[in-house]
Design goal:
alpha+beta; 52% helix; Arc Repressor Mutant, subunit A; globular; 115 residues
C-alpha cells in the first residue's frame, strides 16, 4: 500500500494483497473505523495527562477491545497520540497509557485549530 490518507494507518490495513478476504474485511470496516478512531481520540483527549489504555477506552465506549486496539494503534502511528507509561489492565498485565502527543498539539496550534 502506498503512503497516503487512503492507506494504513489512515485506512484499515491488511497483510496479504492477494488475500481477498483480508482486503474485503478492511474495506467493510473502513467507514466505521474513522468514527471509532475519532471516538478513541476524544476519550484520550478528555483523559488529559492521566491518559487511557486501549482497554479503558473500550470500556468507556462500550466496545470490544478487539475493535478499539487497532484504532488506537492507527492514532499512534499517525502521531496523534503517544505512549506515556504503562499500568495494569483488567487482566493484570501492563498496558500502554496513551495521551495526546506533543506533536499533534503543536501541529494544531501552528494551524490555528483546536486540539
Amino acid at each position: 500500500m502506498e503512503n497516503t490518507k487512503s492507506s494504513y494507518p489512515y485506512y484499515p490495513g491488511y497483510k496479504d494483497k492477494e488475500g481477498e478476504t483480508s482486503v474485503e474485511a478492511a474495506e467493510l470496516i473502513a467507514a466505521g473505523s474513522v468514527t471509532i478512531r475519532e471516538k478513541c481520540f476524544n476519550v484520550i483527549k478528555q483523559k488529559g495527562n492521566f491518559g487511557a489504555t486501549a482497554d479503558e477506552i473500550a470500556e468507556l465506549l462500550n466496545l470490544s477491545s478487539f475493535t478499539v486496539r487497532p484504532r488506537v494503534t492507527e492514532l499512534y502511528k499517525q502521531g496523534k497520540i503517544e505512549r506515556k507509561e504503562t499500568r495494569k489492565n483488567a487482566s493484570a498485565r501492563n498496558a500502554y497509557v496513551y495521551v495526546v502527543s506533543r506533536k499533534h498539539i503543536n501541529d494544531q496550534l501552528m494551524e490555528g485549530g483546536t486540539i
